[in-house]
Specification:
Layout: H1 5-11, E1 24-25, E2 33-39, E3 44-49, E4 55-61, E5 65-70, E6 76-81, E7 87-92, E8 98-103, E9 108-116, E10 122-129, E11 134-141, E12 147-153, E13 159-164, E14 170-175, E15 197-202, E16 208-213, E17 221-228, E18 234-240, E19 251-254, E20 261-263, H2 267-272, E21 279-282, E22 288-293, E23 298-303, E24 309-314, E25 318-323, E26 329-334, E27 338-345, E28 348-356, E29 360-368
Antiparallel strand pairs: 1-4, 2-3, 2-29, 3-4, 5-6, 6-7, 7-8, 9-10, 10-11, 11-12, 13-14, 14-15, 15-16, 17-18, 18-19, 19-20, 21-22, 22-23, 23-24, 25-26, 26-27, 27-28
Length: 375
């Protein structure tokens, strides 16, 4: 049974410090984006940079990072370890200074994603309780040095990304459906029994509000990443674990209380996505979703209101996506160190290489920092 925040506060204990590294700063203009990367020596970092790709800071990580969540009301950002990692590192988005370093609860590991509540008080993480095999959501109190104060079920296996909806109370969770255990690394243990779901939870009580499953034919289509518009149209993207010759839908739209809408690109593009989507992002206007398929070296674009396919752009090993400064604009990163601006205009795509840092390999996700977060 999930414990309450009050119960945990009575029994909470501190976590050991994982890492305290030095920070290299370059003195460039304000940080606008965050991403993890690995350098040519194999060392891992979280970096802050502006839209031109100039580094503001580079903060060492103890191992490979994944996603980074930004507080909507403070200067905090949290870097989450890549599955099956166990660290959370809280940094100052202005300087890269490490504020807190935390570990997952005993018997659990993180899935690489987290999200803040709208008031910045609570930080939510997707986790694997590998003793029971169940997915759980951890609740961390940002006002009490990020103590773990509650945990509740994700109502599925393998919860990956989670987002907060506009009401400030509802969490949408991508339960990928894939069973793993740290003793077997990243091995997938239950492909024949997979049951991915898009799940809505009450963040205050941990109760199940709604759950959407894919048709049984597509039970191997792992729901992994989410993005939403201001009016809560969710785009979810998938990674198919079945035969490579099959080309199922990899992108879907959903609004709470309505049926799921599965989307398809034109056949050649659909095949080129290679049954794998790595990240999804909505633009500043909330009208366009960008979806990366790094295995296929392709990025696709979709209209939020009706799911219409808008076009695609090629980017070898391109995975990280963040919204740009203008409607229809996205910043993308890839494993070769490229940062690329893409502008989607009237069914036309304009692509501009911003910078290439040939000695680094950008990780899977990139985060835009809202202007209000670094004033």
């Amino acid at each position: 049974m999930p414990i309450t925040r009050r119960q945990f506060m009575l029994a909470a204990t501190g976590f050991s410090l994982l890492y305290t590294g030095t920070i290299r700063r370059s003195g460039h203009s304000s940080t606008q984006y965050l991403s993890a990367y690995t350098d040519a020596k194999g060392d891992d970092f979280i970096s802050g940079f502006n839209q031109k790709g100039s580094f503001q800071f580079q903060t060492p990580l103890p191992s490979r990072g994944h996603a980074i969540a930004v507080s909507p009301v403070t200067q905090d950002a949290v870097a989450i370890a890549r599955r099956p990692g166990r660290y959370l590192i809280v940094i100052d988005t202005r300087t890269g200074q490490i504020r807190h370093t935390l570990e997952s609860h005993a018997g659990r590991h993180f899935y690489g994603h987290g999200v803040f509540s709208q008031d910045g008080r609570w930080f939510y993480t997707t986790e694997n309780d590998f003793t029971s095999g169940q997915g759980v959501i951890g609740v961390w109190d940002a006002q009490r040095d990020y103590q773990l104060v509650d945990t509740f079920l994700s109502y599925g296996i393998g919860p990956h990304e989670l987002i907060m909806l506009s009401d400030g109370q509802t969490l949408a969770v991508a339960n990928g459906g894939i069973q793993t255990h740290p003793d077997t690394g990243r091995a997938k243990l239950n492909l024949e029994q997979m049951r991915p779901s898009l799940t809505y939870l009450d963040s205050r009580r941990g109760t199940l509000l709604e759950q959407q499953h894919l048709p049984p034919l597509w039970h191997k289509n792992s729901i992994r990443h989410l993005a939403s518009t201001p009016d809560d149209c969710i785009c979810f993207v998938m990674q198919y674990q079945g035969q490579a010759s099959v080309a199922p839908s990899l992108v879907g739209l959903h609004r709470k209380g309505q049926p799921v809408q599965l989307l398809y690109a034109p056949p050649t593009i659909q095949k080129n996505m290679r049954n794998y989507c790595g990240s999804v992002c909505a633009d500043t206007s909330g009208t366009i979703f960008a979806v990366s398929s790094p295995k296929g070296g392709i990025v696709t674009f979709w209209r939020a209101k009706d799911g219409q396919f808008l076009g695609h752009s090629k980017l070898i090993d391109g995975c990280g996506i963040a919204r740009g400064q203008q409607p229809g604009m996205f910043l993308l990163s890839n494993g070769a160190g490229h940062l690329v601006h893409i502008q989607v205009n009237q069914q036309q795509l304009n692509t501009t290489l911003t910078t290439q840092k040939s000695q680094i390999h950008w990780d899977n996700h990139m985060t835009h920092i809202p202007v209000s977060s670094f004033g």
